[in-house]
Design goal:
With 66 residues, the protein is mainly alpha-helical. It contains two helices and no strands. The longest helix is centred in the middle third of the chain and has 18 residues.
Length: 66
């Protein structure tokens, strides 16, 4: 998992995060285009960080150290 996720910089609600990851994943498979990564990182928009945030939140929910 991307280490920047550990800083908890994502400000999206759980529902917003889930919706955004779902939409971006659909787009990834529809277009076949790998999402861009940005510098500086955008915790509320970069696909890799959003997926990492989703995994991190779920891990906390089920009490799993990732």
């Amino acid at each position: 998992m991307n280490r920047i996720v550990k800083f908890s910089l994502c400000t999206l609600t759980d529902a917003e995060l889930l919706r955004k990851v779902d939409n971006k994943t659909d787009k990834l498979y529809q277009t076949g285009k790998i999402p861009d990564r940005h510098i500086p990182a955008r915790p509320d928009d970069d696909y890799d960080l959003l997926v990492g945030e989703l995994v991190s939140r779920f891990a906390k929910l089920v009490d799993l150290d990732v």
